[in-house]
Amino acid sequence: MANIIDGKLISDQIKQELKEKVSQLKNQNIAIQLAVIQVGNDPASSVYVSNKKKACAFVGIDSISYELSSDTTEEELLELIYELNESSSVNGILVQLPLPKSISEERILLAIDPKKDVDGFHPYNVGSMCIGKATYLPCTPAGVIQLLKRSNIDIEGKDCVILGRSNIVGKPMSLLMLQENATVTICHSKTKNLKEVCKKADILIVAIGKPKMITAEYVKEDAVVIDVGIHRDENNKLCGDVDFDAVFASCQAITPVPGGVGPMTIAMLLQNCIDSAWNK
Ligand code: GUN
Q1: How many A from CA of 168 to the centre of ligand 1?
Q2: Which of 62, 74, 112, 186: CA 20 to 30 A from 16?
């Protein structure tokens, strides 16, 4: 039976550590402010944004919200970003994705000052990560690395298979695992013999966006399974990309959904906000 990797517990420990750092910064008159922009009212995005703001409040980071209507134009959003780039009180800027189809995500992410890009999505920061320079790391992949390290799971020399190649998770995840000296394979919708490839993984990281797709047939006995997905199943219960009940019996360790990777994403955002204040 697997160990359950408790992302909620680990993220609570990190938040506690960060709260102390924020308080030390405040003693040196360094305040931290995060601007959070949401365009439209996608219910899932509203939940994420609200959780991010609550976490900021918990550690003592000030957050200011911009809740823009879904008919906001790209130019209007760009204007707001330019204003926040110039603001001396704002350290971090976060634009919640996805954006309405009428707005180019690429143009918006490129407009954010890389020094305030606490999501780590700007191409400058992506490039810095790629060559191993200290930078803002994208929060979900950085959270997975922390989960593994703080659970004493060795990464070096391990065969790591990543399912999914998104710019937010799959691609940066592969770079961070490579940096930790794993041997990395990235799979996607065109990968042949997916089950066989996954079954070779010592560490299987799933960010494929399909509810409960990964069953025991994909998982080597004693593998570590990290589930980045989050969905509602047929009974309206939260579930991941991994069929937890089917995989739990045979793997070494597994993250639950909810309470696995999700809370770690937010903890890493707080870390980036604190770094942004230091960098300033
Ligand atoms: N949408 C899904 N994940 C993320 C994230 O990490 N940051 C932002 N800004 N939007 C997201």
Answers
A1: 7
A2: 112
**Architecture, CATH, for domain 29-113:** 3-Layer(aba) Sandwich (3.40)
Q: Record the tokens describing residue 141, joined without a space.
A: 């992949």
Ligand 1 atom nearest the C-alpha of 45 is 1
Give bridge partners of residue 3 from the DSSP assignment.
Answer: 253
Classify residue 88 as exposed, middle or buried by CB count within 10 Å of its CB (0-12, 13-18, 19+): exposed
Say which amino acid occupies 21.
K
The model's pLDDT over 90-112, given as tens digits with 9 standing for 90+, comes to 999 999 999 999 999 999 999 99
- Please indicate whether residue 119, judged by its CB atom, sits closer than 6 Å to ligand 1: yes
248-267 pLDDT tens trace: 999 999 999 999 999 999 99
Residue 167 DSSP class? T
Distance 180 CA to ligand 1 centre (A): 24
User: In CATH, which of 3.90.226.10, 3.40.50.720, 1.10.10.10, 3.50.30.60 is domain 139-262?
Assistant: 3.40.50.720
